[in-house]
Design brief:
Elements lengths: L2 E6 L7 H14 L3 E5 L2 H7 L2 E4 L26 H13 L4 E6 L1 H13 L4 E5 L15 H22 L2 E6 L6 H9 L4 E3 L7 H14 L4 E6 L7 H11 L5 E5 L11 H19 L5 E6 L2 E6 H6 L6 H10 L1
Parallel strand pairs: 1-2, 1-4, 4-5, 5-10, 6-8, 6-9, 7-8
Antiparallel strand pairs: 2-3, 10-11
Helix pairs in contact: 1-9, 2-3, 5-6, 6-11
The protein binds 6-O-phosphono-beta-D-fructofuranose (F6P).
Length: 322
């Protein structure tokens, strides 16, 4: 291989820039030309390519977002769109691609590589941490720290005013952000899509706290929880506990941006470096992850199909320590 490309796709995640930097610098060191594809699969279809040199990735390791930008592409879902993307890659002489993204990205990459003969290797980039084949995804550590700091702040004011807060964090299909940020802030309850909410247990905890006159009550809910969003849950609690002064905070996209943590930068850099090595050593259609500190290669199909499982110990901790 003489020329490879790198792109970021789907929801951006802090640490993507560190990963891009590692891909570019490793590629150049290993003697290949590196092209950046802007705007994810959209840019692939449009031939939105830029040549990357060492300098093009200077001073970005600490930045959130992605210098290559991202998009959710409807055109790439069509055969026509993918055909055009392949034509653009071929015209530019690109022989292999590194994809940084989540399950949507790898689903697209998997379909594409089965239709057209071009090798792809992925690195897991999503704040949701919902990919099988890696302990942590790029962006997750930063997102949980952002959520944790925000919840800490809310707890101060909840305590000052004797209020109950329902705090909604991101995670359309996954509760990993809710779980860790909730445990780290001593939440009374954490509601996630992976487990059915035990409303009786929730009522028990809140009744007890009402009796004890606990000043700050925090419930963390993942946006995809089956009980509905934070407003829906607040309504139900208010009906049951009219004495509680109940407030809702939706943290939203604040969790997607910001400076990546140290752990994030180091892991993203390692995965970027290993992805280039894997691609140049002939690996195909795999996601490069890190499990128990070791690099692990998981076929796209498997990474998409099997979601990461929630650690039962973490669930136990919530019940035991609330
Ligand atoms: O990147 C993952 C994620 O942040 C989910 O947790 C969330 O549901 C979704 O993306 C939001 O996506 P968008 O910014 O496109 O609305």
């Amino acid at each position: 291989m003489k020329k490879i490309a790198v792109f970021t796709s789907g929801g951006d995640a802090p640490g993507m820039n560190a990963c891009i930097r590692a891909v570019v610098r490793t590629g150049l060191k290993m003697g290949v030309e590196v092209i950046g594809i802007r705007e994810g699969f959209e840019g692939m279809i449009d031939g939105n390519f830029v040549s990357m040199d060492r300098k093009s990735v200077s001073g970005i390791i600490h930045l959130g977002g992605t210098i290559l930008h991202s998009a959710r592409s409807d055109r790439f879902r069509t055969k026509e769109g993918r055909k055009e993307a392949f034509r653009q890659l071929q015209a530019a002489g690109i022989e292999g691609v590194i994809a940084i993204g989540g399950d949507g990205t790898f689903t697209g990459a998997d379909i594409f590589t089965k239709e057209f003969n071009i090798p792809f290797v992925g690195t897991p980039g999503t704040i949701d941490n919902d990919l099988y084949g890696t302990d942590f995804t790029i962006g997750y550590d930063t997102a949980i720290n952002t959520a944790m700091h925000a919840i800490d702040n809310i707890k101060d004011t909840a305590n000052a005013h004797h209020r109950l807060f329902i705090i909604e964090v991101m995670g359309r299909d996954a509760g990993f952000i809710a779980l860790r940020s909730g445990i780290a802030t001593g939440a009374e309850a954490i509601l996630i899509p992976e487990s059915k909410t035990d409303t009786e247990a929730l009522t028990r905890i809140l009744s007890l706290n009402e009796q004890k006159k606990k000043r700050a009550n925090i419930i963390v809910v993942a946006e995809g929880d089956e009980e509905g969003g934070a407003f829906e849950i607040a309504k139900k609690i208010k009906e049951q506990f009219p004495s509680f002064e109940t407030k809702v905070t939706i943290l939203g996209h604040i969790q997607r941006g910001g400076r990546p943590t140290c752990m994030e930068r180091v892991m993203a850099s390692r995965l970027g470096m290993e992805a280039v090595r894997a691609l140049l050593n002939g690996k195909r259609s795999v996601m490069v992850g890190q499990v128990h500190k070791e690099v692990v290669y998981t076929p796209f199909e498997k990474a998409i199909k099997h979601h990461q499982r929630v650690n039962p110990i973490l669930m136990e901790m919530v019940e035991m320590l609330a």
